[in-house]
Amino acid sequence: MSEEKPVRHLLGLSGGKDSAALAIYLRDKIPEMEYFFADTGAELPETLEFVDLMEDYLGKPITRLNSGRGFDYYLKLNGNFLPTARSRWCTTNLKLKPFENFVGDDPVISYVAIRADEQYRTGYISTKPNIKAVYPFKEDGKNKEDIVAILDESGLGMPKYYDWRSRSGCYFCFYQRKIEWIGLHENHPDFFEKAREFELYHKNLGRNHTWSESESLDEMLARKDEIKAKFEELNPNKKNTSLLGAILDDDDDDEGCLVCFK
Ligand code: SF4
Q1: pTM
Q2: What pLDDT shows up at residue 217?
Q3: Which of 48, 76, 196, 237 is found 20 to 30 A from 67 (Cα to Cα)?
Q4: Residue 259 near ligand 1, beta carbon < 6 Å
């Protein structure tokens, strides 16, 4: 008679604040927890730094998935067509599949950092029958203020990109707002340039294929002052805080990528 496999407890860190807070929240409650981070190969240095910090804080290795097969590899496989909200091959290939490979056929409880104050979409969560998703923050009534408090009390605080961007994920993520693209240009001009080159590839082939649906990065950059002025007009408190991410987070449209951003 074959022995039953033990249940694995898995928590995926996205580099975002919610999954980090959940890892801290559960660290002593579930000592057998395994942590992982699906690295797309297009992560911000601030994200990677935060994941390293988490690893030290948790006192356990965080398994990095995807080694050697980052975004560029899958871009080629997808005919060099950039991912979009409607064609999210990036999430499937760089987040979901590596997670499912990591799990294999083992019975798994997957801890997901959806908060009590979120009406969150559940798409892009694995539907493999051996993976059971649980939502401790939702179950325990923990909201955004609780998450910020958990991070503050741990001493880790918010990830550094929060000064200019609300979410983790790829530097070129098509879900970022225009003010965040401007933030990318100001904080990581080399990454902005790389994102621009992806667009130029299509332009040189006579195609109009851009990260943002409404305009190219060149057009966006030409409107930089206008975008900033509009943002400041809509968010008069911005001048009192450097935490742009907090403002954008408050304005969260619940779009986006659960596995990339939480
Ligand atoms: S962060 Fe954005 S671009 Fe990167 S995998 Fe997620 S949805 Fe795709």
Answers
A1: 0.90
A2: 97
A3: 196
A4: no
User: What does the pLDDT read at residue 49?
Assistant: 96
User: Is residue 129 scored above 50 in pLDDT?
Assistant: yes
CA of 2 to the centre of ligand 1 (A): 40
Q: Any residues with CB less than 8 A from the CB of 163 and at least 6 apart, and which? A: 242, 243, 244, 245
- C-alpha of residue 61 to centroid of ligand 1, in Å: 24
Distance 69 CA to ligand 1 centre (A): 15
Atom of ligand 1 lying closest to residue 256 CA: 7
Domain ranges of the chain: 8-160, 178-250
- 129 φ, ψ (degrees, to nearest 5): -65, -20
Alpha helices in 155-257 (DSSP H): 178-187, 189-204, 217-222, 224-234, 244-250
Mean pLDDT over residues 139-147, rounded?
A: 95
Bridge partners of 64, per DSSP, are 37
**Nearest-CA residue for atom 6 of ligand 1:** 260
Q: How far is CA 122 from CA 78, 193, 203, 254, in A?
A: 25, 33, 35, 11
- Beta bridge partners, 37, equal 64
Of all protein residues, the one whose alpha carbon is nearest to atom 1 of ligand 1 is: 169
Q: Is a pLDDT exceeding 90 seen at residue 188? A: yes
Q: Which fold has domain 8-160?
A: Rossmann fold (3.40.50)
Collect contacts of 141-147 with beta carbons under 8 A, ≥24 apart.
Answer: 141/116, 142/25, 142/115, 142/116, 143/115, 143/116, 143/117, 144/115, 144/117, 144/249, 146/21, 146/115, 147/17, 147/18, 147/21, 147/115
The C-alpha torsion from 56 through 58 and 61 to 64, rounded to 10°, is -90
